Request: fold
Amino acid sequence: MKLVNEKQPFNSQDDEATAKLHALVRGASLEATPRQILTTEYLSDLLPAGTCVYVPFLPKGQFSDTLEACRHLLSLGMQPIPHVPARMAESRGQLRDWLSQLDESHIDRLLLIAGDSDSVAGPFPDTLAVLESGLLAQFRFHGIGVAAHPDGHPMADRATLGQALGIKREYARSTSTRLWVVTQFTFDADVVIDWLQSLGDVLEEVPVDIGMAGPTRMKTLIAYAAQCGVGVSARAMLRRPGSARLLRSWTPDSMVQALVRYCLDNPDTLLRGIHLFPFGGLRQSAQWIQEHSGSLEDQRGQFHESSVQ
Reply:
């Protein structure tokens, strides 16, 4: 399976596959930093109304940056999904304040993560500690996303990660919370498929959005892979025949095609959407979505009803 390619068109001979592909791309979410969101001109021309945009709370940033970016997205008719990193909350009161500000700003969903920091600033070493605190139940959030790692995680094995997802599923069930999963980016559809199949009934009906890098230079992407712990699929990608000539660029085309075929062969899969990390820039990823979403007639009136809505 060739997962990294120079820009090639999707195969349009299979109508069912093409329709599924267009639906996934039209419903794609993206991640963008507060700075990208607040400084990108004509953002509403790049991303249609209703687009889900994940907004990180960066380790060296301020929560106010994330909040301002989310409010700006709301003003443009988009759906902000702020990261709430457990380890960065210095106290129970600070976390409650963050959640309260989101709620008061009519931001009704969030992505709960442990955070990238190696140190723990307060009483929440992980996301399970936040769930156990009961704080989330005090607010009217429409849904909560949690992260997953098909490539594995340097701090936990696959069994432990699966067990944690099961606990989060039970939390969602007991509190009537709408839960979804969004994964760390990976380069290899085989890694994703193996991970999905390994879940068994851990998640039951919880939808999963698969993370992947948007179009970018391979040199940039490999650097991010090293930082984010996705070495397994990165090494697999580089071992593929012809990988040396592909060091110029990456696009997610072939990976999406492989996942489309998997969805058609496995109609009960939990895979519901794709999530782009725009390492090559927000404009470049937005343009890729526009180019691969199907005709304007297909897009009219049906752009975004993602699994998290």
